[in-house]
Amino acid sequence: MKKLFLFASIAAVFxxxxxxxxxxxxxxxxxxxxxxxxxxxxxxxxxLNDTKYTNTSGEDFTITTLxxxxxxxxxxxxxxxxxxxxxxxxLVRQADKTxxxxxxxxxxxxxxxxxxxxxxxxxxxxxxxxxxxxxVLDVASYGTDNMYWSWNSGYIFFKMxxxxxxxxxxxxxxxxxxYHVGGFGGRTAATANxxxxxxxxxxxxxxxxxSKSPTIHLIGDISKVFSGVSPLKIANxxxxxxxxxAGPIANNYAKVFTVDHIH
Length: 263
Hints:
Layout: H1 2-21, E1 30-41, E2 44-45, E3 53-54, E4 60-61, E5 65-77, E6 82-85, E7 90-93, E8 103-108, E9 110-119, H2 123-126, E10 148-149, E11 154-163, E12 176-182, E13 196-208, E14 215-221, E15 239-240, H3 247-253, E16 257-262
Parallel strand pairs: 1-14, 12-15
Antiparallel strand pairs: 1-2, 1-8, 3-4, 5-6, 5-7, 5-9, 5-11, 9-13, 10-11, 11-12, 14-16
């Protein structure tokens, strides 16, 4: 009993010290939260181009391109209040290490327990004037890594490409698969909406203070693109570029992310 009491006392002291060490929250205090995306394929690190992986259907594949938009980030406080961070859009590109750590600017100082974000670009921004879509949303800025359908007037929310032995040989002589997912809905129910919202509990209370700017380390298990909700076989459709056909892929990649730890 004495040992138990001692451990409880020590734990209480450390807890009190931890709480007291945080600076008071000022009414206008803000700071940034960094999202650190670490993409993997199951337990393996994701390496573009040459590394071969196997999906749940036993199909081999490589990944030559992996890009996705993140937007509409929000954080839930310990009291249940949700803080939305609008008009901040990020394009995560596996080929660009700097893009793997988007910074959410000016988050109000508080203690947070949950986060939410959208995979894709919402309909309001998608149909806004071109001069209001700057930075990663600039429709003319993507070069060979195009993330915008000029023919379909919409953003590609998620792009994954690679080589698989079960894919048919294309005109260039490559056994290539291509998943290009877009479609933000529209004025009719028949228009495909492949925007997906992801809500994740934080493993510990995440404090933002005027002098404290945390980093949330997220794991993106890209193997779940093939298995997040239902099995997806490359052999049954190696090229998907129609929003109407991309729903199953969007449903799967909505299950890709987990929060690993907080820096």
